[in-house]
Structure formats: C-alpha cells, structure tokens
Amino acid sequence: MSDRAAAKTQDQEKAERIAKVIARAGVCSRREAEKLIGEGRVAVNGAVLASPAFTVTPADAVTIDGAPLAARERTRLWLFNKRRGLVTSNRDPQGRTTVFSVLPAGLPRVVTIGRLDINTEGLLLLTNDGGLARILELPATGWLRRYRVRVHGRVKQADLDRLARGVSVDGMVYGAIEANLDREQGANCWLTMGLREGKNREIKKILEYLGLTVTRLIRISYGPFQLGDLASGAVEEVRSRVLRDQLGRKLSAAANVDFDTPPRQPQHAAPTAKRPSGKRGPSKGRAGKRATAKGAPGDKPTGKQGARRGHARRRRPV
Which of 60, 212, 302, 313 could be 248's S-S partner, Cβ–Cβ 3.0 to 4.6 Å? Predict the structure, then answer.
C-alpha cells in the first residue's frame, strides 16, 4: 500500500460525525451544533452542509459562519457556583441573565454539564469538551447528584424512605432517590436528596407529590465533585490529574477525552472571592468537601480516589 493510500485509510478510520467534532472543539453541544447545521452556518471544504448526517476527518476544513473551527484543546473541567436568577443557556428569549454572561472573561468557550433551572443554585460543572459533557450527563454513568433542599411543610423520614423504591407522579416514573430529613425549622424543613437521573424539575415535582413546597434548592455535588466552600459566582478549575483520576479509564475512553494536547492559552486562576460575611446557613457534617479522597457518600466515582484539591477555600453561607 502506498503512503498516500495509507494516509487516506487512516483518515477514514478517524472520521467522526460533524456535530460531534464541533462539540469536542468546545463550540457548543451536539444538539446546538445540529441546529447550526440546519441554519446553514456550517461548511466543510467550502460546501455548506444541509444535514448533520455527515462525517469529517482531520484533513477536512470545517468553518462556522465562515470562521475556521478551532483546533481541539486539552479536556478541562471547571466548578461554578451558580446563584439564583441565572438561566443555564447561551441566550434567553426573555432577556434574562444567563450563566455564560457572568463567567470570567479568561475562560475559553465552555458548555454546561447538565442544567440547573433559574431558581436552583449551587454546583454547575463546565467543560470545553462536548464529548465529556455528553457522557457525564447520562444517567447510565451513575454519578449521584446531591442537593440541599428547604421545604415549607412537614414530612416524616418514613415518607422519604419510600422514595428509594422510585415513584410515579402524573404518569412520570422517577427512579430511586435518597432522601434524608436533616432538621425542622419552624414551618420549614431541610432535606438532603441524591438522585442519578436529573429529569426536569424532578425534586420539586416529587416533593410537591408529598405535599411540600420547595423554597430553596442547592446542588452540593455532582459525582465526586463537590461545591464545598466555593463562593457564589466563583469558578475553580479542576486539575487535569484530578479529573483524569476521577473519570478513570472507562469514562475517559467513552468520552474520548484529551489530556495530552498542551493548553491553548495559559491557565489563569479564577479570582478568589473574599469570605462572605453574615450568618452561615445549614450544613450537614462534611458534605461540603470538594472531590475528597472518598468522595461524597453514595457517589460512584470511577478511577483513583486520591483527589487532592490543594486550593484555597472560603466558605459561602447557604
């Protein structure tokens, strides 16, 4: 076989769907990439695509709105403490403030791993690798998402224990949910809940089914990565070594992550917020630690568990 034929065969073996390539470059999610294609904004080798059912190789020239698609960068992950009132989308038809409009200017283009609704606060994972985002969003990955929940009303632990068997609400079947009653506070209660599916407004709908009204919802962990004392609005990057260890070989292979490519730009540490003043909110033991050696109780982190953080920590009231 000639060198030219061998190179062509290699390129064919590396062919990937165009939406996947765009997502891995950190431009947007696969779904959003398919929308770009449908709008006629993506071209390959000068020809505008009419359908996302198209594969490309590293030898193909991909452009979006006439601009070349950026080369793929090293896979990176950030923790972001989202405040209430932010929409988890690139644009909002109603003109509300989005998550992306408040991120530090030094960050590359990122996508969110899952979503938090406008009134939910707490941990939101960001990545520049759309392939990683897709894998970590899947319920099959098995990563537990923990929430601290303040509800109006009273509930017994026995009622919460029944959620571990799953529940059906208005025809929607929800999987097993871990739920614990932490404390009662006047007409309110604080709960800690853990789930693996993350369906739309899942916690609120299930608690309404139990006669409770959610008045505050805070995500405190996503798999082995935890909110801890990250200040509201702050962003903190997870070190590549820690990310590699927590993903393990199986998830790394499924997401086709890249830890070998040098960073495209110097990694600037996100500014550290000053310690907020005021009364601290409720906490539960040491649930605030981020990516600790053992991870959050009940989580299923894969790979090595020696996730040492080594970052300055300041506690935010909840």
Answer: 302
Q: Model confidence over 118-161: pLDDT tens digits?
A: 999 999 999 998 889 989 998 889 899 999 999 999 999 999 99
Report d(CA 221, CA 219) in Å as an integer: 6
Secondary element (H or E) of residue 35: helix 30-38
Residues 6+ apart with CB under 8 A from 289: 226, 228
Unique residue bearing structure tokens 């990565």 = 225
CATH number for the domain spanning 33: value is 3.10.290.10
CA distance 242 to 309: 8
Single residue among 15, 47, 68 that ends a domain in this structure: 68
DSSP code, position 100 = G
User: How many angstroms separate the CA atoms of 87 and 18, rounded?
Assistant: 28
3 is a catalytic site residue: no
Map tokens 């990250």 to a residue.
230
What total of structural domains would you count in the chain? Answer: 2
Instruction: Give the tokens for residue 279.
Output: 């009364």
Domain boundary at 204, 222, 240, which? 222
Is 41 within the bounds of a domain?
yes
Among the residues of 59-141, which ranges form H helices? 130-137
Number of C-beta neighbours around residue 221 at 10 A? 28
pLDDT tens sequence across 195-227: 998 788 899 999 999 999 999 999 999 999 999
Residues with Cβ within 8 Å of 8's Cβ and at least 6 positions away in sequence, in order, are none
Residue 202 placed within a domain: yes
User: Among 117, 245, 258, 299, which one carries the catalytic annotation?
Assistant: 117
Q: Cα(61)–Cα(53) distance, rounded to whole angstroms?
A: 17
Would strands 225-226 and 172-174 be described as parallel, antiparallel, or unpaired? unpaired
pTM of the model: 0.73
Q: Please indicate, yes or no, if residue 175 is contained in any of the structural domains.
A: yes
Domain assignment present for 86: no
Say if residues 88 and 99 touch (Cβ distance below 8 Å).
yes
What is the domain extent for residue 196?
145-222
Q: What is the DSSP letter of 278?
A: S
